[in-house]
Amino acid sequence: MRTARLTALLYCLLLLAAPAAAQTPLEIRATPLRFNAEDKTQVTAGDLRWRGGLLLSADDPRFGGLSDLAISPDGTRITAITDAGRWITARLTYDRNGHLAGVAEGRWGALRGAGGLLLTGKARQDAEALTRLDDGSFAVAFERRHRLRRFPGGDLTKPPVEIAAPASLAAAAGNSGIEALVALAGDRLLAFTEGQKVGGLAGGDSYAVYLRDGAGLWQGLALKPKGLFHPTGAAQLPSGDVILLERRFTLLGGVSARLRRLPLAAIQPGALLDGSEIAELRPPLTLDNFEGVAVHRLGDGTTRITLVSDDNFSPLQRTLLVQFDLLQGG
What we know:
By secondary structure, this protein is mostly beta strands. It is built from 2 helices and 24 strands. Strands 2, 3, 4, 22, 23 and 24 form a 6-stranded antiparallel β-sheet that branches. The protein has a 5-stranded antiparallel β-sheet with strand order 1-8-7-6-5, with no helix packed on it. Strands 13-14-15-16-20 form a 5-stranded mixed β-sheet, with no helix packed on it.
């Protein structure tokens, strides 16, 4: 019995000290893509203009499952999380025309829980949403075992601290929790669930949305469904409006993605959010299971949108990193 206890203690200490929990280099291959493989002249869809895309791959079988990302203000570095409990950082490179051209200096590691141990098991590892707070910290939302965590200083190698979650989030199905997270001014957070239904607000069976004020109090909103799309990612535009990434999958139509703009003024407790469509992406355009969106502004004032897809560690899906310029109203 004593030997078993010592072995368990040693195992815990090894987990705490494991180099893989810090960060290690990751070589990421990047293959350029066209916006439309069938029509090389197409460069726009809705209010989006194609600015380059990459198919990402790596030799390590743990690579994949990218579920959200953040981008530096100058657009040169990305930070992503995966639904297998890992984080990835990399530097982006651009060609002379400003098109996304490559990925370099990849590094990655495993996320830790609030107690300092590495996350184990899908229920604990399922990181789905990422946003950067005003103080530089990262907030991460997890599904299955629904929870929110803050990583001080934006250091994903260190143990996080708890962010109290909305009380009613506990009632969400395992795969219907927070899928998109946006930091708003005043230390507020806006969280979109993937499919938790709410009938108490106008609009009937809408998707639950939660707004956390600067004092840490959560209040309810709702998102009006449109078609068969479900929220998968969100970010804030320079104007203050929120851009919402949504996904649809049907056996006949395959996968589609849509971007909606939600006016900042409409984001109030009790509101039913609707907004306007920026663009819808469907085959034969280059897309996959897009789950993450990030925004930055170019030196000339143009708003650049970056999307990343989750391959679900499936040979039938791909990890894509693509960029667009927003043509109107950044």
